[in-house]
Amino acid sequence: MLVVDGNNVMGSRPDGWWKDRPGAARRLVEQIGRWAGEDVLVYFDGAPVADMPSPDHVEVRYATRRGRDAADDDIAAYAAAHPDARVVTSDAELARRVRDAGAETVGARWLLDQLS
Fold first, then answer.
1. Has residue 19 got a pLDDT over 90?
2. Distance between CA 75 and CA 111 in Å, rounded?
3. Cα distance between residue 112 and residue 31, in whole Å
4. Which of 64, 70, 78, 88 is a Cys-bridge partner for 4, taking CB atoms 3.0 to 4.6 Å apart?
5. How many Å from the N-terminal Cα to the C-terminal Cα in the chain?
6. At residue 68, does pLDDT exceed 90?
């Protein structure tokens, strides 16, 4: 399973995402949906986004706690339970936690290259 640190990937491209975070999240999920040939799990921090698309092969989840980088704990827990997961993040601390759990990591640039 490919697991995406959604906020990290959104934040890695300077396309004005900070002006419309819900819109940026929707665009990312739509892009992943057009690209995905395998199941992808996308985690976001914060409250659920209204009208989030639900493309085939893409599941969106939100952090189970509030606060900065809240989804990191959920992603690390997923990786610990599924060491065959591949996690997309450029967050060094999250990548370390994922690797310590036995899962693989790839950077946000890898996914953005796939999507373009």
1. no
2. 17
3. 9
4. 88
5. 21
6. no
